[in-house]
Amino acid sequence: MAKKIRDISKDVISNQNLDYIDEQVRQDVAYGDETRLITNCLKRFPENTDIEIVAMKIGLIDITNSTHISQHKSKINAYDLAKHIISIPNIDERIKNGDPSVVNEIAKCNGKINLFSFASKYCCYHNHDIYEHDDYSILDTVLAQYLPVYFKGKVKKAHIEKWRQNFMYEKYNEFITQMLDELNITTEFRRRKFDHFIWFLNR
Q1: H, E, C per residue of 54-92
Q2: Are residues 59 and 97 in the same domain?
Q3: Cα(123)–Cα(89) distance, rounded to whole angstroms?
Q4: Tens digit of pLDDT for each residue in 38-75?
Q5: Of 67, 95, 130, at which residue does a domain stop?
Q6: Measured CA angle at 186 (ends 185, 187), to 5 deg
């Protein structure tokens, strides 16, 4: 049974509110500790060249972000995904520079499963936590469900699903950029804070 859509009529997407919710997320006992765990792990092991280290990072992001990779062992396993990630040419430099095509390359993986959500998170965490950039927007089930509610008339679930199914990450990322620009969101790390805002209020 689908979760009932929350009343968002009192939600105001502003610099002040994004900053406030971001701080609430970071102070949250469970999520804050997990966020720091991911950050410390990625800072300690920034590169994506060693299969065992990449597999470790996959497992950490999977379990803390509920990307459910472990539930699809018939289609993908940690070893194959790690092997695929380290095979992507210049992956670390490209993530540092915010190359959106890396998300698609990870998401396509072995052709048996679409890892669009996981890939967006994997790139986002590396880009933000290691390089302190803000180039990637996360897509997960909460964002997919609530973006059409917050931006009614500007995006539909069908649009988001099309972007996901067809590995059109750049289109998704551009949409988030456009919405944040229209709302005059200028706070530092606005993509990351916007993700926290939507997730924390509607999780």
Answers
A1: HHHHHHHHHHHHCCCHHHHCCCCCHHHHHHHHHHCCCHH
A2: yes
A3: 14
A4: 999 999 999 999 999 999 999 999 999 988 898 888 89
A5: 130
A6: 105
